[in-house]
Amino acid sequence: MAPVEQFWNIIWLFFWGFAFVSYLFALFAVITDIFRDRDLSGWLKAVWILFLVFVPFLTVLVYLIARGRSMAERQARSAQRAEAATTEYIRSVATASPTQEIAKAKELLDAGTLTQSEFEAVKAKALSGA
Known about the structure:
By secondary structure, this protein is mainly alpha-helical. 87% of the residues lie in helices and 0% in strands. The protein is built from 5 helices and no strands. The longest helix is centred in the middle third of the chain and has 39 residues, at 56-94.
């Protein structure tokens, strides 16, 4: 084989490898979306999966054309719910309760790190919720 032929064979290999990996991503996205969709009945889900088994490429293409918009909306809603849950968790862990803040300030007051006026300011701030 000539070096030029080998070069083009490698290019074709990369192209088909990329196409195959892209197809797998689309296939798994469709399968995930089928099971995530609460509007589809169990029978329709079974039909989609059956077609994915026997005519996979065409079924993925048809699914993306027919249900692509709702697929994107479900994905966006899922991402928003995950972000909201993460934000809520971070807020619940990151902020101390007023009781904890006052107890910590009292320890610092007893250790002599805070003055009485500073302790009262921390206590007022904790009780006001700011």
